[in-house]
């Protein structure tokens, strides 16, 4: 019997091969499924991470936005506070400027009374006490003026009037002021003429040099003080050198702060500690540079650098040095019209002028002045008037009225506690001399002698 030998075995082998193939296919499929699941799991993780990051970014953005809003509110508050502080500072300065007349008025009367009291004292001890009181009044006056100057400089109310002018005129005025002070202390003051034209504000520059020279003399006990110049490129360098006590290096910046005082010994004049604070502010306003070199026990050198002027400028008028004691020559017998609306000041000034031998006609009200002027048998020799009078009348209008009556050559001194440049300029335009309150009796007396000496005798008033 014939058949198909080996067929079941072949079928089994084929089946096994098919099963093996299916197993391989199944393994591949499983692997692909697993990889696909892994990829989906990673994508989901990434998706979750992205969501988390987005939430964090949103949270940080919100925090940053809130911080920026707080910063804007803080900046707005700071700006408002700064503006309020500036308004307050300006208001303070305006108040001080407006109140300076009332602040200095009683001080002015006190100084005038003290000058009379000093003259009246017969005993040496009484004169010494009176002189001490007068020195105290001078200190109060200097303090008020310094505080007012600082306030104006801080508020930006001081505008430099820069011009070209010869420096020698300024040096001559400074030498006239400080040589007597140096000689009283036994010091040598050397002033070397500059022979150079500089570009600055002549009034502010002289105030700066006055403060520096005053400090140099105050803190020098032996030796001397030098005021001179040297050339540095396009600049002129003014030097104030002394052989004084010197300044420690740690205090080179502190000395320009308000109320910082150097070391003084018993019996020496006490400094206010405001001079160099004013110097720094004036230097900034002018744009000049100031250098300091100092060594303890050896001395100090202040160097002020400022631009040289072009060519030879016209002579600028620095702040006048107070004239020396002129005595009573040329004053005794003078007929002086005195116009003042403050009773205490009027009485003090009249008493002082009377002690100097003048014939004084004190007037408080303008109506009284008109009656008095109409009944005079001779021309007044001199007019002394306050600037601020009652009923919004200023002293310059009084000067103009009396000059129409007695002639344009009538010399006039305007006295004012208003230290503004406007009053000074108006007085110059009117041809009047200006004295600041509190009035220094010696300066008043010397100025009166000067005006009376240069003015010819006036004729009788017109009928």
UniProtKB/TrEMBL annotation:
Which residues, renumbered to this chain, carry the PTM 4-aspartylphosphate?
386
> Which residue ranges does the record assign to the Response regulatory domain?
335-452
Domain Histidine kinase residues, every copy: 98-310
Q: Does the keyword Transferase apply?
A: yes
CDD domains assigned to the protein according to its UniProt record, in alphabetical order: HATPase, HisKA, REC
Give the EC number(s) under which this enzyme is classified: 2.7.13.3
Q: Per UniProt, which keywords does this protein have?
A: Coiled coil, Kinase, Phosphoprotein, Transferase
Q: Which residues form a coiled coil?
A: 12-91
Q: Which Gene3D superfamilies match?
A: 1.10.287.130, 3.40.50.2300, Histidine kinase-like ATPase, C-terminal domain
Note the SUPFAM superfamilies from the entry. Answer: ATPase domain of HSP90 chaperone/DNA topoisomerase II/histidine kinase, CheY-like, Homodimeric domain of signal transducing histidine kinase
Q: Which GO terms describe its cellular component?
A: plasma membrane
Q: Which SMART domains match?
A: HATPase_c, HisKA, REC
Question: One Pfam annotation, family name?
Answer: Response_reg
Enumerate the GO terms in the molecular function aspect: histidine phosphotransfer kinase activity; phosphorelay sensor kinase activity
Q: Which reaction does it catalyse?
A: ATP + protein L-histidine = ADP + protein N-phospho-L-histidine
Q: Which NCBIfam families match?
A: near_NosP_CTERM (NF041832)
Its name, as the record gives it, is: histidine kinase
State the organism named in the record.
Answer: Roseicella frigidaeris
């Amino acid at each position: 019997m014939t058949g198909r030998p080996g067929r079941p075995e072949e079928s089994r082998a084929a089946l096994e091969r098919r099963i093996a193939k299916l197993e391989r296919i199944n393994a591949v499929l499983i692997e692909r499924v697993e990889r696909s699941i892994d990829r989906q799991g990673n994508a989901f993780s990434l998706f979750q991470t992205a969501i988390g990051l987005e939430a964090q970014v949103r949270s940080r953005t919100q925090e940053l936005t809130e911080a920026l809003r707080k910063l804007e509110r803080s900046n707005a508050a700071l700006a408002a506070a700064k503006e309020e502080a500036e308004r307050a500072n300006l208001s303070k300065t305006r108040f001080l400027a407006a109140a300076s007349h009332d602040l200095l008025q009683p001080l002015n009367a006190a100084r005038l009374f003290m000058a009379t009291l000093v003259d009246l004292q017969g005993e040496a001890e009484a004169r010494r006490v009176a002189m001490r009181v007068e020195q105290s009044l001078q200190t109060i006056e200097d303090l008020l003026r310094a505080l007012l100057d600082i306030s104006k400089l801080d508020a930006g109310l001081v505008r430099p009037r820069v011009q070209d002018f010869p420096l020698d005129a300024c040096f001559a005025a400074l030498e006239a002021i400080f040589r007597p002070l140096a000689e009283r202390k036994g010091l040598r003051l050397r002033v070397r003429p500059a022979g150079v034209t500089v570009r600055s504000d002549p009034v502010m520059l002289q105030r700066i040099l006055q403060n520096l020279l005053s400090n140099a003399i105050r803190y020098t006990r032996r030796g001397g003080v030098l005021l001179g110049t040297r050339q540095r490129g396009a600049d002129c360098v003014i030097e104030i050198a002394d052989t004084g006590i010197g300044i420690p290096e740690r205090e080179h910046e502190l000395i320009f702060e308000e109320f910082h005082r150097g070391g003084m010994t018993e019996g020496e004049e006490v400094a206010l500690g405001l001079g160099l604070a004013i110097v720094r502010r004036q230097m900034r306003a002018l744009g000049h540079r100031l250098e300091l070199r100092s060594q303890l026990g050896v001395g100090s050198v202040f160097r002020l650098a400022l631009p040289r002027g072009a060519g030879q400028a016209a002579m600028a008028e620095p702040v006048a040095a107070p004239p020396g004691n002129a005595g009573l020559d040329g004053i005794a017998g003078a007929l002086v019209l005195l116009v003042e609306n403050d009773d205490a000041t009027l009485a003090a000034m009249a008493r002082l002028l009377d002690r100097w031998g003048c014939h004084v006609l004190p007037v408080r009200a303008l109506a009284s002045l008109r009656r008095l002027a109409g009944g005079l048998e001779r021309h007044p020799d001199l007019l002394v008037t306050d600037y601020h009078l009652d009923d919004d009348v200023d002293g310059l209008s009084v000067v103009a009225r009396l000059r129409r009556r007695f002639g344009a050559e009538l010399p006039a001194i305007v006295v004012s506690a208003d230290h503004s440049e406007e009053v000074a300029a108006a007085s110059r335009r009117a041809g009047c001399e200006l004295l600041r309150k509190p009035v220094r009796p010696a300066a008043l007396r010397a100025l009166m002698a000067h005006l009376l000496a240069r003015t010819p005798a006036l004729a009788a008033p017109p009928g």
